[in-house]
Amino acid sequence: MSSEPGIAPLTSSWPSRLIDPRAAIALATLYVVAVVAVPLAWWRTLGGLALGLAFVIGVLGITPRAILGRWMGLLLVVAFISGTAAFASAERARLGLIPTALAMAAKSALAAATMLTLTSAYPFIRLLAGLRGLHAPGLFVDSLYFMERFRYLLVDELDRMMIARRARTFRRSSLAWGLLTGLLGGLFLRTLERSLRVHDAMLSRGWTGELKVLDE
Amino acid sequence: MKIDARAPKASLAPSVRVSRLEYTYPDGRHALRGIDLAIAAEESVALVGPNGAGKSTLLLHLNGILPGKARRGVFTHSHGLEAGSRPIARSGPAVWIDGLPVDDRNLREARRKVGLLFQDPDDQLFCNTVLEDVAFGPRNLGMTADQSRRRALDCLARVGLTEAADRPPHHLSFGERRRVGLAGVLACDPVVLALDEPTANLDPRARRRFIELLGGISGIKLIATHDLEMVLELCPRTVLLDGGKVVADGPTRSILDDAVLLEKHGLERPLSLELRARFAEERRAWGEAPGDTP
């Protein structure tokens, strides 16, 4: 078990221990901006950037499979964004729809892989400290902070609701849409109630609207 | 039933005073109906009663959380002096802590003075590490990061969880989370410790450990609970609430030994007292028939 909280990093290699998370976030952001700025048909440049990212992944000691596993989870989003953006892009007339969509998919995939590399190399809590250090909007960082804390709790809560449902379901079948939406609605209400209780707990310990942490 | 005459209240000015406190939830449920309560310094008081009696609602009033919601417009409520059966608008506070009225002007200080331990530790522990969570109160009370860290480590040591400082709360057992919650409350250095069902859902060992921890803490303790055996151990005084009213207030032993009163209000005599009563009854029965001894 990792002694540091948050999503367990996939690596603990020397670069991630040596490089401050603020610098890592800034570098990753610059890389994404560079990828986005590359014109669509410049495949060689995109290839060079991809090689650069592969080198970083190798140095960090992250297994490509782990990145790929997480990246696959984003595949639908990447495909949707690329498809819709390619359809609306002015470049479509010059390059054709499919090459435009492929180029956009490649750029989106690189950007997503960069961020996945970043989150794989650092514990989430250090990234949050980095964002705070970079003066990201407090509300945004605080929301991520709470999301990270209560993610496990909500998953537990959903698991319990699923088990309770299964305990009273007497036929083998996949989850009906009606039941699924009911479960999600129930989870939302429970989340809302819990958020009110958490807010009470914060108020009772002097919360004034600003999250003050120890690593400031 | 009031047992005020026997109640061991100090003759000095009370550290916690609640006067004719009324509260109605937004769904119209009248949760508190004219609560009067005075607690002296160093007193440990149990708040017992059936579900929905108003115990938790009363605790939330002690540091001004519930009326605060109404002021922010999240909930509507009535919070006033009762005239006949109609609540009227209150012009002043209904709760005083250490002589300080709990109202808008004093909320910050009132919240520092009253440490509230919530029933569900997952509501209480919202930070990503145990140390961050325990230090949350001191940081909000204006201490520097270093001072807060030291205070948090001290409090974690008090509850025996120093080694858990860097762990995320969701990796702890329920009992450990409860103790971290207590450490977070103690870190604010409260005058009053208000505990909502502190032993609920704990296994016997964790419960015993928590009771011993509470026993070692000085200051005012107000414990809302269904764990009447714990009440017998920790609280010389008990307040019985039902339907938002104080129905009995007096020495723990006399209230918890009154089986009729307890049953009338949805409770039952603790097992230790029940066994003692039965044993005494049997002894009386034997005494009435001398020579029948086995």
Write the layout of secondary structure elements.
The complex is a heterodimer of chains A (216) and B (294).
Chain A: H1 14-18, H2 21-37, H3 43-60, H4 64-73, H5 75-88, H6 92-95, H7 97-121, H8 124-133, H9 138-167, H10 177-204
Chain B: E1 16-24, E2 30-39, E3 44-48, H1 55-62, H2 65-72, E4 82-83, E5 86-87, E6 95-97, E7 100-101, H3 107-113, E8 114-117, H4 121-124, H5 130-140, H6 145-158, H7 174-186, E9 192-196, H8 204-215, E10 220-224, H9 228-234, E11 237-242, E12 245-251, H10 252-256, H11 259-264, H12 271-288
Parallel strand pairs in B: 3-10, 3-11, 8-9, 9-10
Antiparallel strand pairs in B: 1-2, 1-6, 4-5, 6-7, 11-12
Helix pairs in contact in B: 5-6, 5-7, 6-7
Would you kindly provide a written description of the structure presented here, covering whatever features stand out?
The complex is a heterodimer of chains A (216) and B (294). By secondary structure, chain A is an all-alpha fold. Chain A folds into 2 domains: 14-130, no CATH class; 137-204, no CATH class. Chain A has 10 helices and no strands. Chain B is of the alpha/beta class and 294 residues long. Chain B has a single domain (10-282), classed as Rossmann fold, CATH 3.40.50. Helix content of chain B is 38%, strand content 20%. Chain B contains 12 helices and 12 strands. Chain B has helices at 55-62, 65-72, 107-113, 121-124, 130-140, 145-158, 174-186, 204-215, 228-234, 252-256, 259-264, 271-288, and strands spanning 16-24, 30-39, 44-48, 82-83, 86-87, 95-97, 100-101, 114-117, 192-196, 220-224, 237-242, 245-251. The two termini of chain B are 41 Å apart. The A-B interface holds A 1, 3-6, 125, 128, 145-146, 148-150, 152-153, 194, 197-198, 200-208, 212-216 and B 60, 63, 65, 68, 108, 111-112, 114-116, 118, 120, 122-124, 126-129, 131-132, 135-137, 139-141, 145, 148-149, 166-171, 184-185, 188.
